[in-house]
Amino acid sequence: MAEPWAILADASRRQILVALAVRPVSVGELADQLPISRPAVSQHFRVLKQTGVVVDVEHGTRRVYHVDPVALTALKDQLDTFWQRTLTGFADSRRVVERRGKGERR
What pTM was computed for the model? Predict the structure, then answer.
């Protein structure tokens, strides 16, 4: 399975997470709000559940999904780490380019 933050690569999953940030919803409710089919919403929920970012609770004959705040915090931490490494790599590369521009060697 891919890194948990990789779930955000899909636009539909991002839309689902945005909707779940407002309030818990069922597959049917969300399918009515999004331009994708009910089976597609179910499949995205399955992926989100596998990564632990989303959990579901049975309410009668339907399942209601909501974001797991602990998992979302862990996801945020991973993204922050990735972002910091990217910025550090960019800064390191920039320094190398600037030195080369001044005629210095590494």
Answer: 0.71
